[in-house]
Amino acid sequence: MKVALDALGGDLAPAEPVKGALLAAEEFGVDVILVGPTAVIEQELAKYPANNRISIVEAPDEIKMAEDEVVKAVRSKPRASINVAMKLVKDGVADAMVSAGNTGAVMASAFFVLGRIPGIERPALSTLIPFNAGRVFLLDAGANADCRPSHLLQFAKMGAAYSREVVGVSNPRVALLNTGEESGKGNETIAEAYELLSQSDLNFIGNIEGQNVHKGLCDVVVSDGFTGNVALKVGEGMADYILQQVRSVIRSSILYAPAAMLLKPALRRALKSLQYEEYGGGNLLGVNGVVVIAHGRSDAIAIKNALRVANASAASDLMVKMREIFAQPSASSSAAGR
Fold it and tell me: What is the model's pTM?
């Protein structure tokens, strides 16, 4: 597998993407194509030992993190690093692409360059959320603020396919994020989506409330992008808060120092699971290629793990299965007219 990495993407580019690429090449054996200005990338690579799994493709232009009109920028800058990396996937030079750049620009480029998988109305941004025994897959995490019931059904099908092909869950349990577990809960869209999911061939287990998402009661959580993004960011905020509180309490008294030293390995393992860097990035599911969007403030560890996620997705049968699922009349027949 070869993964194209947008070397200009993110608040810490190009230093952290380049370092993350080297870490992924060394730890996971990922072949990484760094996309960006060659001279800039070579300057960063010169700080580290040479690695034959790293190559460079020239892309002189950049779509900035704070770009106002992302669609216009994507259309007007064909040689921007995001577009060039995306085209490498389309042309089969790369098997996947990763960017920590402007999320809107990455999504727009994926739509324009790769297009949607036939039968999918709306691509969805996804992410893995930790719980004690593993991870649950959440989508949509922010690509679609307003959704129809048919979109939520398609998100569920895409999420179940990812859970099977990439995570390795044989019969993924799918749940609908809602304000209560009862079937009548939620607004009209959620209620209709509940009926569609109930009638589908998915292993739909019903509604799930926010406080239960991290308990491992299901494998896939389906939501509209607005709700999913809010839930995700609240979770990230709470994780940061917990980390700060643990550090603050330990530092509050010299009496805690000896205990903290003894517990340090256990605390490090526990706190590691709360850090977004360990999860790398989210797949943009529904476009005709493997695209992973990393957090804008991704450091080298986050980039390394985003490359791992992209490599695993590309190495699986995910894209083949997605095309098969949505080529079937049953995948979209329920959505007709909704």
Answer: 0.88
